[in-house]
Amino acid sequence: LKPPKAYNSLQKGALIWDPKPLQVKKIFEALKKGLNEYLEAHQAELDYLSGRHKDTKRNSRLVRFLFNVKYLKQIRSVERYIRKLEFHISKVEELYEAYCIQCRLRDGATNMKHAFSLSPSTKASRESLVELYKNFQECTEDMCFIEGALEVHLGEFHVKMKGLVGFARLCPGDQYEVFVRLGRQKWRLKGKIETDDSQTWDEEEKIFIPNLHEKFEIKVTELRGLATILVGVVTCDSINFFTTKPQAIIVDITELGTIKLQLEVLW
């Protein structure tokens, strides 16, 4: 976790990151649950293919041969994917366990610093405080690097634009711009309400890389000639998206819910 050149990006003598253990815990639990869902789904698929493979024994020799080739190939492919998922889960658990150890060490250093600060100042106590601050910094840096390593295992979010729902609020000819941000990642797309009430958008899908601390920020503006009118801004947590099934997201853009944005997120 700490190779010789791990801290080149840190400014010497300055702590530039702030770990967030509670947020990391929530993401870890959601991630592990989602990975286990994928594992259970592929295990069920493997059981099904194995059962079909056994059923071919009742057929003729040629049919058995053809089915064996087909099912064995599928079985091997699913088995490989299951092994990858199992390794993925073990790696995530290993990283989070290391993160929790550093978090406990950091909390211990904080508590000891507080205890020393309440006691009379001596040369020994001042030296201990300096050493505790150093330990605190090292634990904080380790936690931040583990957070970065954990983010590598979060996968991808495939976000699809499903359109705006506005009841009487949307009229033919209206043009809108939707801006979606996740940290430094941005997606800006424009859409128009057609005469048959259908909608056309210049883009339909975008891939976002999840991270531990950022939420989705969605802004909708109405385009009227050279002017733009802000319809609404909302934020959306990504914790619920770590699942095997596509998630339909319906977001109230206006306070009264007169315009809703429909997105679909596949992890």
From TrEMBL:
Similarity comment text for this entry:
Belongs to the RIPOR family.
Domain annotation FAM65 N-terminal: ranges: 2-267
Family annotation (InterPro entries): FAM65_N, RIPOR3
Q: What is this protein called?
A: RIPR3 protein
Q: Which domain of life is it from?
A: Eukaryota
Q: Which organism is it from?
A: Formicarius rufipectus
